[in-house]
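chain below, 107 aa
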Amino acid sequence: MTFVVSDACIKCKHTDCVEVCPVDCFYEGPNFLVIHPDECIDCALCEPECPVDAIFSEDELPEAEQDFLALNAELAEVWENITEKKDPLPDAEDWAEVTGKMEHLER
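prediction:
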């Protein structure tokens, strides 16, 4: 089992979750974070830390967000590992309530 970063993270990229991860399984792209499914130990520490509720347990991932499971696995293989908290993106507040942001994902 793994946790999955979903649509709500796109263009926000809060990193509160990174700070609490005991196994450093987060990876960072230009405007999105992902969790490496082979490294996640299912500890659930990251989920409550996300201010935009973008992190779900694999078995609680909404039906409309199922593609994010494969996307997290794919991007974790090519993006750089992130282990320390950073500031969110400058316009994160503007994007916090926006849904359906997949078209804005920067690879």
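Strands lie at 3-5, 26-28, 33-35, 55-57, 80-81. The chain has a mean pLDDT of 98.
thats it, cya
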